[in-house]
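so the lab meeting is tmrw and i was supposed to have these ready like two days ago... anyway. pasting both below. for each one the top line is the aa sequence and the line under it is the structure tokens. i havent really looked at them closely yet so no promises
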Amino acid sequence: MIKILFFDIDGTLLEFGKKEMHPELIDALNKVKKKGIKIILATGRPPFIVPKFHGIEFDGVLSFNGSYCFTPNELIYKNPLNKKDIQTFVDNAKKLKKAVTLAGINKMGCNFEDEGLKEYFTVAGQHVHVLDEFNDFMKEEIYQMMVATTEDQNELILENTTTLKVARWWDKACDIISCNGGKDIGIQKILDYFNFNKEEAMAFGDGGNDISMLKYVGTGVAMGNAKDDVKAIADYITDSVQEDGIVSALKHFNII
């Protein structure tokens, strides 16, 4: 029996560039909640730009790809990045002439203008700003970094770091998180909090950073618009986000 559902946001709950879910999806999620099933957002976004949707309230958030998890009333788990490796990573990026966005709990910003980063944030309907106090911000708790590099540059960008890894949902840029992070780690922390097991969990996603999540839960659902490597590991492939694939899957599994 499914007791908890995890949802990626961009490309899963929301069409890229959109800010509101389809009314049919909101109605379906409210039916899920009436059955006592928990609904959780699972996103790479920082907490302060996790959207609040009209007509539906989520029971928790897995943000920063699992590195900062909370309910509306309580912090469940946090896993900030290693400060030494942050500096090394920023130095590596400079060698590639790439800016880095640092993201903390309450703010984020980059060290210089970068068209690739600008495009990355635009895809998710967000904006990135240059921080004059970037070096001071590096000394605070940072949970995620973003950089406009491609997969073939992973080794260069991570050179001489020991605690970082790439979480990628787009081919021209990526998120950088802790090696012992990921949406699967965040899911386990939330399952522990609610006293559920993996077999009672279902997750929905479309991007590469959703793979660990879909593989970890009892039932992993890939959206019809998901990348091929995401579909390859999913237990079920539903319709696209444009076609309300979540609603289709909830009906398929007799959850609603």
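ok protien two:
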Amino acid sequence: MNDYTPFDRFLLQVGKIPGALMIVPLFLGVVVNTVAPEALMIGSFTTALFKNGLAVLIGLFFLSVGSQISFKAALPSVEKGLVLLLAKFGIAVLFGLSVAFFSTNGVFLGMLPLAIIAGMSNSNGSLYVALTSQFGNKTDKGAISILSINDGPFLTLVALGVAGLAAFPMMALFSAIFPMIFGFILGNISSIARKFLEAGEKLIIPFAAFAIGASINLQVLVGEGSVGILLGLATAVFSGGAAIASLYVWHIVRRHPASTRNMVSAASEASVAGNAIATPAVVAALDPSYLAVKDAATAQIAAAVVVTAFVLPFFVAWLAGWQKRRGVTPENEEAMYESKSTGASVGGAAATARL
């Protein structure tokens, strides 16, 4: 027996929706802003929290995220994370800048460069951890310590700034990333601070999501947001493909036996992060020239988040099964690392893992 109320049971059902913590409040905000926008403008703390509090909420979120980034992970996890991070960021920049510079009007099939770079360069950390926990091994899960770097707008700002597509004063850029840097410092010098700030990663998301949605009109979401379905599929295919190819090359370069070339982490990284929805707002705040496309880019990314959240679990499950039928398992890979640390033979460890 439990003491769940009917509303508790309703929340449990809602929680089964992929990305529910970000997606559900976001769309609630969109609906309220479309149907009754004046309800959020009654003033005082209500307006401050639900309508005008996005900048503060995002700042707190970045502080919390930064506090959880640690470079004390084992070497395979760090290497894996770096390979996946560079692959995902590289394909996002290549795709986004190609559209910006070589397509008609700087748009490809309705997809905006801002949405492409912001969406494809970020990954859903919660989904990654959930998938690697179910289908991967310790090194797969440990890679999140490096992959967390792509949370937030930092890499998007770097790509746009270096390419000359946006003008970000250095102080403005620093002020945008300082909360994450400060959180990183706190989390690495104090386990107490890291534990205290850990809750912020989840606690802040629904409130920030609602505030983001409260700035979007449903008509924009339906019109421009439909393009986000294509962005989500492109992310899964190109981002996932680049991550898988890069990780496979890493396995070969590191001379890992064929049975240990586990690709679960690469497939689990091919998503669009829910917090990427906030990136267009951050970019537009730093460079007003992006205000004209902010809402459209936000809507496209929001739709892409939903698409990858639904598609990716099925793909990762299929890939894990496909690997296993060919004798490649996360257990084999983990046994290989353990055998190296104990001096046992790799082949014997891998064989043991298969039994």
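from a quick look at the 2nd one: DSSP finds 21 helices and no strands in the chain. Residues 291-325 form the longest helix (35 residues). will dig more after coffe
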